[in-house]
Amino acid sequence: MKIFTYVFLLLFMFLTYACGDDSSDFCLSNQQSVQVGFYSSYQSSDTDSSVSNVLIYSTGVDSILYDEATVSDVYLPLSMENDSSQFIIEINDLKDTISFVHQKELNFVSGECGFIFSFYLDTVMYSDVSFIDSVAIDYDEVVYNENLENVKIYLY
Q1: Coil, strand, or helix at residue 83?
Q2: Structural domain includes residue 62
Q3: Does 23 fall in a domain?
Q4: Cβ neighbours of 150 (radius 10 Å)
Q5: Which of 5, 37, 47, 60 is most buried, judged by most C-beta within 10 A?
Q6: Does the global pTM surpass 0.90?
Q7: Cα dist. 111→21, 54, 60, 115, 138 in Å?
Q8: Which residues pair with 40 in a beta bridge?
Q9: With bands split at pLDDT 50, 70 and 90, how would you rate the model's confidence at 44?
Q10: What is the pLDDT of residue 10?
């Protein structure tokens, strides 16, 4: 009986060790963010536009995501509780609002990483009162650990 216990314990330790790996670098973030690029509406082709003095904050969370930054693309975190996320983009004291309507799906990544949400963009709404000319969804799926531009914002 003791041999059975030792063999079982040894087998259990071996299997536990074999299932784990050192790929904890893969579990860098639980954050799901829409990658947004800024473009000039005056250009005939899509060329990145670098924008200065950008202030971006969410209407749902009291946090500033970008503060007086110079950016050509930004990462905007989507809400895990709601089916929409809204952000205020301010450039040189001019404000526009952008809203993402999205669906979410819970996916299992691994034992170390746990579960994450994958998001699907349905609609992007925006106020074009200041500097946003138009918005286009380029890639509607926001997937964990991918570096794809989801939305293009064309500026006046």
Answers
A1: coil
A2: yes
A3: no
A4: 23
A5: 37
A6: no
A7: 10, 39, 31, 9, 32
A8: 155
A9: confident
A10: 62
Instruction: Let me know if residue 2 belongs to a domain.
Output: no
Q: Is residue 53's pLDDT more than 70?
A: yes
Task: Work out the pLDDT band at 150, boundaries 50, 70, 90.
Answer: very high
| CA 43 to centroid of chain Cα atoms | 27
Alpha-carbon distance of 106 to 91, in angstroms, equals 35
Instruction: Using DSSP, state whether 76 is helix, strand or coil.
Output: strand
Total domains present in the chain = 1
Q: Which of 22-26, 27-31, 128-132, 148-152 has the lowest mean pLDDT?
A: 22-26
The Cα 51–Cα 74 span in angstroms is: 11
Give the CA distances from residue 118 to residues 33, 88, 146, in Å, rounded to whole numbers and listed in that order.
10, 23, 11
**Domain enclosing residue 53, as ranges:** 29-155
φ/ψ of 41, rounded to 5, equals -80, -10
Within a domain: 12: no
Q: How many CB atoms lie within 10 A of CB 87?
A: 23
Residue with tokens 């819970």: 106
